[in-house]
Target: branched-chain-amino-acid transaminase
Amino acid sequence: MINIQKSKRSMKSNFNYDDFVFGVQPTDHILLCNYKDGSWQSPSIMPYADIKMSPMSLCLHYGQTVFEGMKAFRQDNGQVIIFRPDKHFRRFNASLERMCMPAVEQDLFIEGIKELVRLEEHWLPEEQEINLYIRPFMIATEPRLGVKVSDEYLFCIVCTPMGLYYSEPVRLKVETEFVRAAEGGVGYAKCGGNYGAAFYPAQQAKIQGYDQVIWTDAKTHEYIEEAGTMNIAIVIDDRLITPKLSTSILDGVTRSSIIQIAKDLGMIVEERKVQLQELIDEFQSGKKIEIFGVGTAAVISPVKCINILGTEYYPYTANDATMFKLKKQLNDIRKGRSSDKYNWNWFI
Amino acid sequence: MINIQKSKRSMKSNFNYDDFVFGVQPTDHILLCNYKDGSWQSPSIMPYADIKMSPMSLCLHYGQTVFEGMKAFRQDNGQVIIFRPDKHFRRFNASLERMCMPAVEQDLFIEGIKELVRLEEHWLPEEQEINLYIRPFMIATEPRLGVKVSDEYLFCIVCTPMGLYYSEPVRLKVETEFVRAAEGGVGYAKCGGNYGAAFYPAQQAKIQGYDQVIWTDAKTHEYIEEAGTMNIAIVIDDRLITPKLSTSILDGVTRSSIIQIAKDLGMIVEERKVQLQELIDEFQSGKKIEIFGVGTAAVISPVKCINILGTEYYPYTANDATMFKLKKQLNDIRKGRSSDKYNWNWFI
Ligand SMILES: Cc1ncc(COP(=O)(O)O)c(C=O)c1O
Ligand SMILES: Cc1ncc(COP(=O)(O)O)c(C=O)c1O
Model:
């Protein structure tokens, strides 16, 4: 049972849906649940507010933090769904295990999200293309300066409205010097440290005129892994090609959904290593190639220019590109316009 | 100018010097300094207390955190010194740069530490082997759920008493599956993410009967890099051998000090790649080999057993081992018993 204390008034009245920056405005409530003495205490949903923390909290020093990110949508008929919370739940626990943090129960995670979204669904307007971004996260809270696994944790869920993410086609640079994640490391976990570590390489790419980097494997820098904080996929003819999962690649929920949709559309899906040289060869052969990022935020982010080892190539991004069909189909499922064969939509 | 607000009474009266766990008891004050609108605000030293934080603070989500760790000692004549704060300062800023965080001025960092240690030096007893562990750290505080470099930061310094760290000889396992850091990554930075990521491999090693792991390079797993959260060094005859610095190895202050001391003692110092096969060959030749971790906490941590690719070898750890001479000399310098040729001691 979640103890609920409702906020007296909604911050929504001061929120401008027509002009806002993503991630700044929390909704009215936060779910909080403490872990101590080896077990989870009872969760509560409270009015959104700052939290008090010891300056010695382990999460501030040793990066013992894990998060998730998913979305809730209002369907055309008015009903609100959460997209694949079960898959996010499993990934959350996989991340937690790698970071030596205690698992959460499916009940706490999914019922917590549902309960919170029920309270916040009024933030989802009927007329506008706004969805709710849901951020469950866990931080190590034991106050202790020694390098050690924390004995205390705080699990939270917050939400924030998200507009239609217009994904302008991007210019990406294949990164062969900096590394996001190595096999045997924590790249497959959604732990905080992976993201802070990726800022500098992305900043350097910006200086060179690119929007983001495409990560390559730490061992040889010959294989592509991810695109910034998205998975990466390629379409050539009727094939969808995407790097095979490994300990250095995040198991994206959008990636998995797009793979399923591509199969349903009759495409051949190849999950395997993707070599830079293969891409170069395909481009040089004059083939029509689509390259795109896949992730919760933008769903699909078309790549219009890719710098591979110093040479720029130009993937196909016209309106009839296959990636947009995949995106539309995913969107149709979520909005209730297309049949939800795989039970991806969880009604609140 | 640091604004100082003294605590009304010291927590020291309730502190048991004869029986305490490292890192739990803060001293009475904390230094706090906020960064916003592109510049550092004025620092203050306040009574130690919890801090208020937005649940959306970027540090809780994307691991934009950096820390340092150094020590203050009471010398035999009663004077208090801080050991090489200038070198810790440079490393702090190097870490910050890699994490896209704003540099701090030497004045804020070193004067902040000195001022704080002046207030806390009464925590250093005359009679006991207690020193003060000093923890400067910086966290990203902008409340924002988007993956971005923070525009706001909090720089803090806290202290905690530290007892004589009895470093029992340890059993270490050479890790060839899990990875702490890759070249091109953030291993050389003291960012939080590196530490949380290392918990799981260390836990697995414990299950297998070892105290910690020895990290190898992410590319080939053929070269040793560090020992847990310490640098690693080897003594064979009159040679001190230690892995050469790279982007995957932390530039340890103790490592650098021990190298200097070894040179002063007439040893040959080799900073270079150290291959596992080389160690195996040396052990198999029957040579006397010393292996030890080097770091601020224990200074030197003797290795009594090392598992290399499944075989255990037994380095030399008797009382006459060279590593103890190096440790004693470092300690003598800090305590004022030996001349401080390199100005490592900063009086408060
Ligand atoms: C590193 C990384 N890769 C890929 C993804 C895409 O995963 P998902 O589709 O589950 O959002 C994310 C998260 O959005 C990510 O942070
Ligand atoms: C990963 C790592 N290596 C090495 C060291 C040793 O560095 P120092 O001698 O500056 O304490 C530390 C910190 O103590 C560390 O965290």
